[in-house]
Design goal:
The chain has 355 residues and is of the alpha/beta class. Helix content is 28%, strand content 26%. The protein folds into 2 domains: 165 residues, Medium-chain alcohol dehydrogenases, catalytic domain (Quinone Oxidoreductase, Chain A, domain 1), CATH 3.90.180; 130 residues, Rossmann fold (3-Layer(aba) Sandwich), CATH 3.40.50. Strands 3, 4, 5, 6, 7, 14 and 15 form a 7-stranded mixed β-sheet that branches. Strands 10-9-8-11-12-13 form a 6-stranded parallel β-sheet, sandwiched between helices. The protein has a two-stranded antiparallel ribbon with strand order 1-2. The chain is globular, with a radius of gyration of 21 Å. The relative contact order is 0.16.
Length: 355
């Protein structure tokens, strides 16, 4: 029997991340399963961090999709070692991108038609670190995708973490004047490194005024919430120009008390349009009669990366070994001035295959 030893990350409880081991048997791969060997994975400062810190609902509910103990993961670049009998999109030896777990090896389950279990073949000549960070661009691309805008209009992106930074780059690529805002100076510096012209490192309570000052009182034609906090949504509404658009790119999780009537009145009186931009509403694969898909977005982002229109290096602050993954979660949560985008490099964790 052919087996391989695997190392994987797990959240055993709130603020507790550890590495564990398991043995994967090649003969037991299910029909829609794929055995993957990881090159790199990327840590999400949104979904994963919310589960790590127990701010996401469900972590203490047995049977919930994210109940402790939970295996984290967000995006993976790696190699196919084996496929099940019903897998046709990839074959052994293919280099792939998918939404796998943080693990040196794993059985990736493709039995669902949902986009989060899709898998895509990717070029051999692009560095694995950049390809893993492309996962965050796949989140960010939904903001401009759902925005109706014209070149020369103004987009203000609230929050310059990895997703916000990349969303700002994509709006700029589309021809908009982009304003990036974040209270953390180092994240603003990374946005400037990525090529943004207007970056405001001001505290949240000063951000609306700063946008109105910069736009001559007009406000931004598009405002983007890229943090995942309801208070930032309020700032987006107030900073938006009349007849403008508010795009909710982040997923709010923490309870927040505020004056909903004032916010709704603002939207109503000033003809604002508010759009949710959760990434999982698109089909996984491109095809005839399918105008937008995860696969189509990935191909466009790969082209932008290859032609120098997308700067992924600007949002990579750390490349770590698996042993430092717990430190990375703590850093993303508590040291935002140092941690921006974290890539886990698994290439030294591979164990030999035993027959």
């Amino acid at each position: 029997m052919t087996t391989i030893d695997a190392t994987y990350a797990v959240f055993s409880d709130q603020y507790r991340s550890e590495l564990q081991q398991e043995t994967i048997e090649f003969d037991s791969v299910p029909p829609f399963g794929v055995i993957l060997e990881a090159e790199t994975t990327v840590i999400s400062a949104g979904t994963e961090l919310a589960i790590y810190s127990a701010t996401a609902p469900g972590v203490r509910t047995p049977g919930s999709w994210n109940a402790y103990p939970w295996r984290p993961g967000y995006g993976l670049v790696g190699r196919v070692l084996e496929t099940g009998s019903s897998v046709s999109r990839v074959q052994s030896g293919d280099r792939v991108f998918c939404f796998g777990k943080h693990a040196s090896h794993q059985i990736y389950d493709m039995s669902s038609s949902k986009p989060m279990v899709a898998i895509y073949k990717i070029p051999e000549d692009i560095p694995a670190v950049q390809l893993a960070m492309l996962r965050m661009a796949l989140v960010a691309v939904h903001a401009p995708l759902l925005t109706t805008c014209r070149p020369g209009e103004t987009a203000a992106v609230f929050g310059l973490g990895a997703v916000g930074n990349l969303a700002a780059q994509l709006y700029r690529q589309a021809g908009l004047r982009v304003i990036g805002l974040d209270p953390v100076k180092q994240r603003c510096d990374a946005a400037r490194e990525a090529g943004l012209d207007w970056v405001l490192d001001v505290p949240p309570e000063q951000q609306v005024k700063a946008i109105h000052d910069l736009t001559g009182g007009h406000g931004a034609d598009v405002t983007v919430e890229a943090v995942g906090h309801s208070a930032v949504v309020q700032n987006c509404v107030t900073a938006c120009a009349d007849k403008g658009q508010v795009i909710l790119l982040g997923s709010p999780r923490v309870p927040y008390e505020g004056n909903l009537t004032q916010a709704f009145r603002d939207i109503h009186m000033r003809w604002l349009t508010m759009r949710g931009a959760l990434e999982w509403r698109l089909p996984p694969y491109a095809g005839f009669g399918i105008p937008e898909s995860v696969e189509g977005n990935l191909q466009r982002l790969l082209l932008a990366l290859q032609t120098g229109q997308l700067n992924l290096d600007a949002v990579i602050s750390h490349i770590i070994s698996p042993q430092d993954i717990g430190k990375a979660y703590d850093g993303l949560l508590n040291h935002k001035e140092d941690y921006l985008g974290v890539i886990v490099d698994w290439r030294n964790e591979h164990q030999g295959v035993e027959q």
